[in-house]
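Look over both lines:
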Amino acid sequence: MESSGAPILELHGWGRHSPSRSFVARPERVRDAVPPPTGPVIPRGLGRSYGDAATLEDGTVLLMERLNRFLAFDEAAGVLTAEAGASIADVIETFVPRGWFPPVTPGTKHVTLGGCVAADVHGKNHHRDGAFGAHVRALLIVLADGSRRRCSPSEEPDLFWATVGGMGLTGIVLEVTLRLVRIESALMRVEHRRAADLDAVLALLADPAWDDETSIAWIDATAREGRIGRGIAMRGHHAARAELSPRVKDPLRWRAGSERALPCGLPSGALRPGLLACFNDFYYAWQGRKERPFLAPADGYFYPLDVLADWNRLYGRQGFTQYQCVLPDRSAEAGIRRILEAIRIARRPSTLAVLKRFGPADPAPLSFPMAGYTLAMDFALADPDVFPLLDGLDEIVAGCGGRVYLAKDARLRPEVFRAMYPRFAEWLRVKRAVDPGDRFQSDLSRRLGMGASA
């Protein structure tokens, strides 16, 4: 690498594999968040994309986490304007005590608002409320030529929707304006239900009588024979004051779990299939007992893995990858069954598998969600045959009309990407218009051929 005067760091995604050496810059004020004079650049938030979406070999990575100021808040409407480096955790800690919560949140609170826009993140409420972009009122973006552009669903909508889900490749998001949702407590009213197989899980998630503000299912990816797809369906909503005990004196107090650091990675044998099956049997019995409604802190409900500050180290030195796909309603049941059967036959069960129902897609060409079901599975990369297995899953997903989540991806092939994202050409037209020199790149965009010259 030729020196640009900027420090050089080795960066990787949350999966902790395939690092890249990059020049880095850390702007302290929004005026400093501009592309460098030459060379490719990508903005990076808190590094929670799992693969190579926020790394750039031989390029410049802008570390955005210090641009985290709140700029304006309309208390009556719940509309917040913040710098893009502000995190979901920052929003929660400041606004939950005032009775407001993010409209959509992923499975970690340690992600920036800019990252939420770039990945168009989804949560447990997508079937009702859509993805993050549906709640964004406006963006302030720095383009490749250094100019600033405001956009919204009504003002320059093409740029707005290309940036939502655009993986940071249209420009640097400086400010995000979004509407929060009103809550009466920081507690969730939760209910679990055991489901004996995949049919039962899907029936619960689709049942209007079971529906709630949020819903999700844990899937036992080690289950065999007639139990394939068995799981625990979970539903919940922000508890109203009337649902709380009189002993709860401060219902809006945020009860954040104390985060612990993992001293070292686990040895590779700790995640072997036999031990996973034993744990899943225990978890199915333990969580399945919670069929009566109960109250739980929202922090533990939405962010169970945040209790370990660096839980990605559980997978050892080689790291891990998460395979998250979505299948449309018409083919979801058959496709998910084929996926679970494929990993069973390969004897490579996922260490964690989660199933959610999605509602309709938003207008963003590269947004991941579509009406159907999404399945997310973690695989340790100590096993060298994981990527070939996932290539086979790609064929199932693409054949069902589904797609893989770019924020989690680390190995998708460009021709499969184009098949899964048929609106790529629509997005590319905007990319060429605002970044004709292809200044905004990432290792992901290079791997998938997403540049302006594509």
Remarks:
- Residues 213 and 237 are 5 Å apart (CA to CA).
- The first strand starts at residue 8 and ends at 11.
- The radius of gyration is 21 Å.
